[in-house]
Amino acid sequence: MMAGYHPLVKQMLDGELSLADLPPELRGEGEEALRLVQAADRAPVALSPAVEDRVMALVRGHAASPARRAWRWLHAPRELELRLRVRPWAVWGGALAAAAVLALLLSRPARTPNSETRVASRDSVFVRFVLYAPGARRVAVAGTFNQWDRSAAPLVPAGTSGVWTTTLALPVGQYQYGFVVDGERWVADPAAPAVDDGFGRRNSLVAVTAHGTHVL
Amino acid sequence: MSRLSLVLGLVLLAILPGTLDAQDVAARLGGRVPPTVRQAVVTIAAGAAARGLPVEPLVQKAIEGGAKGVPADRVIAAVRSLAGRLGDAMAALHEAGLATPDGDVVEGGADALNAGLTSHDVRDLVRLSRPPYDPSLTLRVAATLAALGVPGPQALQLVEGMISAGRSASDLLALPAEVQAGVGRGATPAEAAAGLARAAGGSPPGRTSGFVPPGQSNPHRPPPNPHKP
Amino acid sequence: MGLEAEASDAEVVRAVLAGDVDRYSVLVRRYRDRYARYAARMLGSRDVAEDAVQDALVRAFDRLADCRDPNKFAGWLFLILRNRCYAERRRRQRERPLLPVDEGLAGPDRPDGAYDRREQQRALEQSLGHLTAEQREVFVLKHVEGMAYDEIAQITGASVASLKMRMHRAYDRLRDLMKGQL
Questions:
Q1: Which of A11, A207, B13, C49 has an alpha carbon within 20 to 30 A of C69's alpha carbon?
Q2: pLDDT in tens, A62-89
Q3: pLDDT cut 90: percent of chain B above it
Q4: B149 CB near a chain C CB, below 8 Å?
């Protein structure tokens, strides 16, 4: 292990001293230290212009999605408890899409007749999954609630917006899940709580309880 | 994996009460995983059942591996690893005074260990999780906080603080979403958790105020030159 | 472009919140590259940085209503990106703890005498990958972004004294890691 830099050399690196301020015996060390910080790459980094297109495609999808409308609705006090989350995701190799899972819960029977149709039963609730995946040919959600069956819960595209959705009636419990794009690519929400699946990937988490859906 | 071990596994599962039936395990895995995985999981499940561990999570993990097209050896390793965590969780629950914990609590403990909490964390949290607090719930909340990036000890303290303050199960369940919201507002997971802990415990706030991000106050200033004139 | 380019952050934020989603592209263009260097140096890869910046921009949109002072959108966005970078580092450490940072930042070698500098640059980039996230951040903000300690303190919430301590440990660690390459 090489000894650290002399405190005066560190002060020089911090910009508090110049090389000329160092005593002669520290000049060599000082010059080496300067070479170190001068090796920092300060060149501007330009991202792909496609970033703008991708971001705007994602945000337009979010803005138009039922999730966002529901979020606005949530800001007004209601009788129904509702939790939701929307998360983007990116995939490898430049082909980029966005994923979002939205859990809409009606935890207690609402008094309005229209809402009652959305309550599955006393012990299960409707959970809506939304995935933004432009370019995908097919999308499904699979998890512990459907024995990880890649074809049991397909999502339906909402027009040509790239948004895919499905609503499942899930019993109360905690679930791990992932999206399956084009039958083979498993995608977890990287921004959501997720756990190691033991196979080198991540599983997203959602809990359905008598109090609502939750991000665990 | 020999045929003998499969038979032994089936026999063990068949004679153990309160667990998935041996044929159930084999049948549920049939067609979902390769035969080598099925044989191995039956044996692992038999061993787990003999120790009083829940078998369903092991079956689920094997099915998940099959659905994801994971190679057989990795599926077996993951199932074996999960069985180990279930065993560690069970030991922690015993230390916490739960002689025959529910399978869901054991699984919650294994999830907490998978998220980075320690056996001691699991033990301590379960000790605190007396009625009306369900230990499977408190364990999963702490595990999710850890999965969000909240340091393990801090996740534990936050949940413990909520329990000590007598907060409701709904409040506990809302913690991960509140941490996420805090992160969305710019806090680190640890900072967001600290803010929630202060809110629960009433300790004084201490967050830094606004700041100037890179490129804002001095967008054209060149990098510093340590060679002072 | 003219009118859009001159609009303040706050004006654009308010327009977007009022429903003019397409105006968000003004902020995307404004901050896409401005924060790219920070993300690239923190994550050691332009491609990963691109994902991080993109994700931060989308997250910022999703939570735009939480941006209490639209005049400070830049700082608010930076905090989201910073958290995204930290999360990405944690994720990569969990999933690939033994792998070094990739070489996405290294350009082609040049036969014009810049070889040594390029090699030093590459060595430093590799070495930065061995620092803690906090050490790397203070190095990047000071020696890449050119910020003063008090400015960094405002971002991180750490005191200037602790930042200096962090940086001085980083100097020592980097010296050790780059032994024979300076």
A1: C49
A2: 776 544 444 443 332 222 222 333 333 3
A3: 36
A4: yes
Question: Residue B217: which pLDDT band, with cuts at 50, 70 and 90?
Answer: very low
pLDDT at residue B64 in the model: 95
Q: Which residues of A touch C179 (CB under 8 A)?
A: 2
CA atoms within 13 A of residue B100's CA, in its CB half-sphere: 2
Among partner residues A21, A184, A214, which is closest to B173 by beta-carbon distance? A214
Asked if B176 and A34 come within 8 Å (Cβ–Cβ), the reply is no
The pLDDT score that the predictor gives to residue C50 is 92
Spatial separation of the C-alpha atoms in residues A213 and C47, rounded to whole Å: 34
Strand residue runs (E) in chain A: 124-132, 139-143, 156-157, 163-171, 173-181, 185-187, 194-196, 202-209, 212-214
Helix or strand run (H / E) with residue C147: none
Instruction: Compare B83 and B16 and report the one with higher pLDDT.
Output: B83
DSSP state of A154: B
ipTM above 0.90, yes or no: no
Task: Report yes or no: C11 at the A interface, CB cutoff 8 Å.
Answer: no
Query: Residue A12: its chain B contacts at CB < 8 A?
Result: 226
Contact A99, A131 (CB under 8 A): yes
Alpha carbon B108 to chain centroid, angstroms: 6
* Reported CATH class of domain C115-182: mainly alpha
What are the start and end residues of each CATH 1.10.10.10 domain in chain C? 115-182
Interface of C with B in 108-167 (CB under 8 A): 141-147, 151, 153-157
pLDDT band of C181, cuts 50, 70, 90: confident
Structure tokens at B215: 């490129």
SS3 content of chain B, % helix, strand, coil (to 5): 65, 0, 35
Q: Hey, what CATH class is C1-103 in?
A: mainly alpha
